[in-house]
Amino acid sequence: MKKEINLEHLGIIPERPPSLDQKGNRKKIHPAKVRGKFKQARTLMQAFLIFIFLILPWIPYKGEQSILFDIANRKFVFFGHTFYSHDSPLLFFLISIGVFSIFLMTAVWGRVWCGWACPQTVFIDSIFRRIEEWIEGTYIYRRKLDQEPWTSKKILKKIIKWTVFFLMSSHIAHSFTAYFVGAKELVWVTTHSPFENLDLFVFVQFFTAITLFNFGWFREQFCLIVCPYGRFQSVLMDENSKAILYDPNRGEPRKTRGLKDHGDCVNCFRCVNVCPTGIDIRNGLQLECIACTACADACDEIMDKVGYPKGLIKYTSESELKGEKKSSFTTRSWIYLCILIVLILSFSTILLNRKPLEIKIVRAIESPYSVVTSNDKTIVINHFRLHLTNQTAHDIQLDKFELKDFEELENISPELSIPLKPNESKWVHLFIKFSLEKVPTGKKGVHWEISYHNSQSTMENITGEMTLLGPNTQKKKTHSKD
Ligand code: SF4
Ligand code: SF4
């Protein structure tokens, strides 16, 4: 039988992803545990992000969920402030701010998002890999366990691990869903029969399955194969961008048996053992590197032990490694920053000028106007519907509705003194009555003003324009003359 040659043992770098073996099968990566300054900082950051993600939807604020994306009702709640579909310009600016922040971050600090804040890294690193380590042991035990035959001990460990993974995935899926349907609604759904809200039940189970598959098994493959950001980051970065890099000037030639005059790299492979994507950073910056800093911490530990200065693997740029003192804030970064400032200013301006009371006036769906005769006078009545939304976290009291430049107006709608609770919306009817001669052409634009006061009794006005309709009497006169 033909003997397979392991090229990696001969020091030949294979031209295939590190998570695949020579036959192209998935090679499960079990990274070693790492300690160090970056790891400490990342643990704090991850704890904060997990708190935000898992706990926030369950914490009420001013009587509402702290953050809610109520897509069905086109409503978005953010710490007591409610936004609606008509606030979509704000959403556009918010998304653009997010996109350009990532552009700027990548251009200056490389894939800092992937290593420090991406949910894929945060959940796998701080939850799923920890669970795996508690149940199956260190990376050496885990690698051994994977190669062992299916004994009862191995089966038991795998059952326990996947059960805990399932519970955790279910909690993540429920918290994620709570952002969209509301925590109260979700609790109601989970405490009642699935058949009472089958759609939501199926969605949560489906999302649990996806989470379990991704965080439990797929892991780094998502970053390597699926994530679009991983693909276009090379377009956003240049040689001045910061990245986690190995300093070959210091490290090479690596220590090998018989070589007396070697660099600082003692060839211990610790940096490879801790890498969650299985790469060797000593081969230079690679697409698979998610800038998680594990190799930098691992190498610092080794440098400490062998008595060399730390920083053989560090945050630096390719131009710095070449000895060029170039700032990572290049012209491109300044352009991104300028665009970002414009977007933030536009967003803030719209937000600050957002009216506390949103008013929409629409014509009622029956006939545009009706004509009645009263005391030998021909009267035209227009029927409108007012949609009022209190966009503040305080009560609002609507006081009066007036037409500014239109005399002899009579508003025959029911009392327009309307109370609105925080974030409450109401439809009210508005009937406007005027004599026929006032609108001889059958159409007249008029200005309206609505006065209201808030809980501090501060009076405010909102003005707008509307069109009154009636029969065109001038046209009839012209025809009769003819
Ligand atoms: S951890 Fe440092 S010393 Fe060890 S192989 Fe990696 S670069 Fe070389
Ligand atoms: S090379 Fe280093 S920074 Fe990049 S993914 Fe691997 S361990 Fe993380």
Task: Describe this entry's structure for a reader.
By secondary structure, the protein is an alpha+beta fold. The strands form five sheets. Strands 8, 9, 10, 12 and 14 form a five-stranded antiparallel sheet that branches. The chain has a four-stranded antiparallel sheet with strand order 13-11-15-16, with no helix packed on it. The protein has a three-stranded antiparallel sheet with strand order 3-4-5. Helix 6 crosses helix 7. The longest helix has 30 residues. The protein is elongated. The mean pLDDT is 86. The site of one iron/sulfur cluster (SF4) has 14 residues, from helix 13.
Short synopsis of the structure:
The chain is an alpha+beta fold and 482 residues long.
Q: Helices, strands, pairings?
A:
Elements lengths: L36 H19 L4 E2 L2 E2 L1 E4 L4 E4 L2 E4 L3 H22 L2 H5 L2 H18 L2 H9 L4 H30 L1 H8 L7 H21 L1 H7 L1 H9 L6 E4 L1 H4 L18 H4 L20 H13 L6 E4 L1 H4 L9 H22 L4 E7 L6 E5 L2 E14 L5 E8 L6 E2 L6 E3 L4 E11 L7 E12 L4 E11 L3 H9 L1
Antiparallel strand pairs: 1-2, 3-4, 4-5, 6-7, 8-10, 9-10, 10-14, 11-13, 11-15, 12-14, 15-16
Provide keyphrases for this structure.
alpha+beta; four-stranded antiparallel beta sheet; 16 strands; 20% strand; elongated; 482 residues; Immunoglobulin-like; five-stranded antiparallel beta sheet; single chain; binds iron/sulfur cluster
